[in-house]
Amino acid sequence: MTLKLYLDFLSQPSRALYIFFKINKVPFELSQVALRKGEHLSEEFKTNLNRFQKVPFIHDGDFRLTESVAIIRYVSKVHNIDNNWYPKETKAQARVDEYLEWQHNNTRAFCALYFQRKWLFPLLTGRQTSPETMQKYEDNMLACLDQIENIWLADTPYLCGDRISVADIFAACEIEQPRVAGFDPIKGRPVLSAWMNRVRSEASPFYEEAHAVLNKLAEKGGKAKL
């Protein structure tokens, strides 16, 4: 039975999994969930698809799994993924895991909060976040981007070494998200810009496929509508 991947392309980890699956030729059936329509909020969705009512998640026969990092680890073992994307060697794998754990309270948290408060919540509620609060969200995000440049990319072309890994895909997908809210994450950041270009190139054409919707929204400079 083919593995089913449930996602929404406006979800950062959804895009990361899609890119990872396609690059590594993981056979899967794509099932899109329209979060903007609230498809994930029904009782039927909760009962039959995902009890946490979020994306992404997979169904692999009778086995159901949520949480994108857990899915990466599972798929890497089941499908014998190429070593550089999720290394088998203990220390190299630990280095990738280090970023995947770090990102939850850093890259993902700060980029997502900025995107939500600047663009998504005002769109859904009609209420703007105060300038003072937005400045705090932006400051946190900028500090996180500083750490990406000055710590994670200080000595290597990729986050976890000399070769691209799934850590780079997850990070890039998170850093792309604020573009929808009119924020350019690479402006004035040559190190980050060069790294993003490397990731996009290494993951092409699947990176572009995964970001097609986001790019269209970002082109509208923060005035996009779902």
TrEMBL record:
**Entry-linked Gene3D superfamilies:** 1.20.1050.10, Glutaredoxin
Q: Biological process GO annotation list?
A: glutathione metabolic process
CDD domains per the record? GST_C_Theta, GST_N_Theta
| Segments passing through the bilayer | none
EC top class, in one word?
A: transferase
The UniProt record lists the GST C-terminal domain at 89-224
List GO terms (cellular component aspect). cytoplasm
Q: Which residues form the GST N-terminal domain?
A: 1-83
What Pfam families does the database record attribute to this sequence?
A: GST_C (PF00043), GST_N (PF02798)
**InterPro entries membership:** Glutathione-S-Trfase_C-like (IPR010987), Glutathione-S-Trfase_C_sf (IPR036282), Glutathione_S-Trfase (IPR040079), Glutathione_S-Trfase_N (IPR004045), GST_C (IPR004046), GST_C_Theta (IPR040077), GST_N_Theta (IPR040075), GST_Theta (IPR051369)
Q: What is its EC number?
A: 2.5.1.18
Task: Alphabetically list the UniProt keywords.
Answer: Cytoplasm, Transferase
Instruction: State the reactions this protein catalyses.
Output: RX + glutathione = an S-substituted glutathione + a halide anion + H(+)
PROSITE patterns documented for this protein: GST_CTER (PS50405), GST_NTER (PS50404)
Localization (cell) = Cytoplasm
Q: Which GO terms describe its molecular function?
A: glutathione transferase activity
According to its UniProt record, which protein family does this protein belong to? Belongs to the GST superfamily. Theta family.
Subunit comment: Homodimer.
Q: What is this protein called?
A: glutathione transferase
Species for this entry: Tribolium castaneum (Red flour beetle)
